[in-house]
Design goal:
The radius of gyration is 22 Å and the shape is globular. A hairpin with a 5-residue loop joins strand 15 and strand 16. It has a 6-stranded mixed beta sheet, sandwiched between helices. A 5-stranded mixed beta sheet has the order 8-7-9-10-11, sandwiched between helices. A 5-stranded mixed beta sheet has the order 13-12-14-15-16, with helices on both faces. The chain has helices at 21-35, 50-63, 76-85, 122-131, 147-159, 181-194, 226-235, 262-276, 290-298, 310-320, 345-357, 361-371, 385-396, 439-454, and strands at 11-14, 39-44, 67-73, 90-94, 103-110, 142-145, 170-175, 199-204, 239-243, 250-253, 259-260, 281-284, 302-305, 324-326, 332-334, 340-341, 378-380, 402-404, 409-412, 416-422, 429-435. Among the domains are: 11-147, Alpha-D-Glucose-1,6-Bisphosphate, Chain A, domain 3, CATH 3.40.120; 261-341, Alpha-D-Glucose-1,6-Bisphosphate, subunit A, domain 3 (Alpha-D-Glucose-1,6-Bisphosphate, Chain A, domain 3), CATH 3.40.120.10; 378-454, Alpha-D-phosphohexomutase, C-terminal domain (TATA-Binding Protein, 2-Layer Sandwich). The chain is built from 14 helices and 21 strands. With 455 residues, it is of the alpha/beta class.
Length: 455
């Protein structure tokens, strides 16, 4: 039986169609067998189906003789942290992040919190799970709950990224989207208070609720942004934050409620890390690059481009020992966080930058927005992706100064650039356009590309 829930670097499927408890059990046994695992960290998000799927995975691991370290409800990054902190052989987070209600999935890592993809074990797990030939259960597996111990260690580690003495009084609006972020954020906020941080918080949609009464938490979608923006304005907050379901992505709103596109946060954080460690390497994805590369090179750093997707960014961080990596989709990766992504570290760093500069977030990014305006990611659901790309190539390829096919099609011109790529996880074509200091040129090129793609 072919398992179609296996994707490029994680597992994702529609419940009852290509993912259920029985399949989760087979994946769990395949994971343990493929990795030769004796100790595995297991966590889950708040989705209604996650508890059942996690229980099936736990049974499978125990039946393989594994010691399961159970985190319970947590974010994906807490699983990453616990794998390294407890010297486990791998970790699994049952989550579908921002996917629709009838989906769920798993994010997996091996020892050292290193990513899994088809080349580093995911294909072997798939083969074993499809064969479903595991034999009898072993008698020596067990499970123990480590949630409280793990979270305390995680909070201590995360707070090590921020200089509390540099913080100034800020009122911060946080929107957990009824996902897993609330309890973890509260633990971090308590740790900040103990250290004397002058921050106050307004909590919105804070309680975890797997029915998602306020909609699936995906703040990248423009239609989901007004609720946070309006709350920032209503409360007179200095900063707004929102997370997706497993909070491995963090989204920023300035003091006026304006949404800050991810590439400008990547540039801010890259510059901040280079101030700490001159000459360091910074990894970025291929979609929107000019602002990041300009800042990194001006600060004496070395920009490294990697394919879009968490497994590829993490692999590049490890290969080049980069101090930081960022994607415009709001994934931020840190060398000193097991080369993994975190949705909690970025806002701590931005709050510190605001404290050190005395400037609001809008001022910190205003010049960069003028210098390198970008379109934001525009998604197209179309029947023939190849034909759409061919139309775009026929129109623009001949006059391009450079061409890059690391991830989709990137064409660069003297004053503008675009990336067109198929999604790794959805039947969607994604377009990003950027320009050098010319918002009118940007708008014109977006209109031309839109017409070609939808023709």
């Amino acid at each position: 039986m072919e398992l179609s829930c296996f994707k490029a670097y994680d597992i994702r499927g529609r419940l009852g169609e290509n993912l259920d408890a029985a399949i989760a059990y087979r994946i769990g046994r395949g994971f343990a067998r493929a990795l030769g695992a004796r100790r595995v960290v297991l966590g889950r998000d708040i989705r209604a189906s996650s508890e059942e799927l996690a229980a099936a995975v736990s049974r499978a691991l125990i039946d393989e003789g594994v010691e399961v370290l159970d985190l319970g409800l947590c974010g994906t990054e807490e699983m990453y942290f616990a794998v390294s902190h407890f010297d486990a052989d791998g970790g699994i987070e049952v989550t579908a992040s921002h996917n629709p209600m009838d989906y769920n999935g798993m994010k997996m890592v091996r020892a050292g919190s290193a990513p899994l993809d088809t080349a580093t074990g995911l294909a072997a797990i798939k083969t074993l799970a499809e064969a479903d030939d595991f034999g009898p259960a072993r008698p020596d597996g067990q499970s123990r709950e480590i949630g409280a111990e793990a979270r305390a260690a995680y909070v201590s580690h995360v707070l090590g990224f921020v200089d509390v003495a540099a913080l100034r009084p800020l009122k911060i609006l946080v929107n957990a989207g009824n996902g897993a972020a609330g309890p973890t954020f509260d633990a971090i906020a308590a740790g900040l208070a103990e250290r004397g941080a002058p921050l106050s918080f307004i909590r919105l949609h804070h309680e975890p609720d797997g029915s998602f009464p306020n909609g699936i938490p995906n703040p990248l979608l423009p239609e989901n942004q007004p609720v946070t923006a309006e709350a920032v304005r209503a409360h007179g907050a200095d900063l707004g934050l929102a997370w997706d379901g497993d909070f491995d992505r963090c989204f920023f709103f300035d003091e006026s409620g304006g949404f800050i596109d991810g590439e400008y946060i990547v540039g801010l954080l890259a510059a901040a890390f280079l101030a700490r460690e001159p000459g360091a390497r910074i990894v970025h994805d291929p979609r929107v690059i000019w602002n990041t590369r300009d800042l990194v090179e001006a600060a004496g750093g070395e920009p490294i481009q990697a394919r879009t997707g968490h497994a590829f960014l993490k692999a590049a961080l490890r290969e080049f020992d980069a101090i930081y990596g960022g994607e415009m989709s709001a994934h931020h990766y840190f060398r000193d966080f097991m080369y993994c992504d975190s949705g909690m570290i970025p806002w701590l760093l931005v709050a510190e930058l605001m404290g050190r500069s005395g400037q609001p977030l809008s001022a910190l990014v205003a010049e960069r927005r003028r210098a390198f305006p970008s379109s934001g990611e525009i998604n197209f659901t179309i029947s023939d992706v190849a034909a759409a790309r061919a139309r775009v190539e026929a129109e623009f390829a001949a006059e391009a100064l450079s061409r890059d096919e690391m991830d989709g099609l990137s064409l660069a011109f003297p004053d503008w650039r675009f990336n067109l790529r198929a999604s790794n996880t959805e039947p969607v074509l994604r377009l990003n356009v950027e320009a050098k200091g010319d918002a009118a040129l940007l708008a014109d090129r977006v209109a031309r590309l839109r017409a070609l793609i939808t023709a």
